[in-house]
Amino acid sequence: MGKLASDERVAGAARQIIGDDPYVHQSRINYKPGFAGKGFNWHSDFETWHAEDGMPAMHAVSASLILTDNHEFNGPLMLIPGSHKKFVPCLGKRRKITTKARLKRKKWVCLALKRLPS
Predict the structure, then answer these.
(1) Where are the domains of the chain?
(2) What is the greatest pairwise CA distance in the chain?
(3) Euclidean distance between CA atoms 110 and 44, whole angstroms
C-alpha cells in the first residue's frame, strides 16, 4: 500500500488537490467482484474520520484505483457535487446516535439521493 500511495501518479494528484504533501490516514482494500455482492450505502468518509479519528477539518482526499471501467450498471462511485467544499452529513431519524453506534448497529440512515442527469 505504501508503494502505491507514494507513486507520483497518486501522490501528485492528491498534492494538487490539497495543496500540501499528502500522507496516508487510513488504507483499505474493498474487493468488489463484478455483478456479485452488495454495494455500499451513501456515506460521508469525513463524518467517520471526524467523529472517530478526530480529523478536525475536511482537508483530505480519498483515492480509488479501479481495475476495470465503471459504468452505471456495474457499481459506479456516486458523488454529491459540492460536497468537497461543504460537509454533507448522513442525517438519520435519531441524530443523537453517534457514527460509532451506527457502525456497530450497521444501521445506515442516510439522505436519499437521485442520480443526476447526464
Answers:
(1) 1-118
(2) 43
(3) 9
Cα 58 to the chain's mean position, in Å?
12
Q: Can you tell me which residue has the cell 471526524? A: 50
The Cα-based distances of 63 to 4, 9, 24, 87, 98 in angstroms read 11, 11, 10, 18, 26
Q: What are 26's three cell numbers?
A: 487510513
Q: What is the pLDDT of residues 76-113, one digit of tens each?
A: 666 676 777 777 676 655 455 554 554 455 443 333 33
DSSP one-letter string for 24-83: -S--------TT-S--PPP--HHHHHHHHH---SS--------SS---TTS------TTT
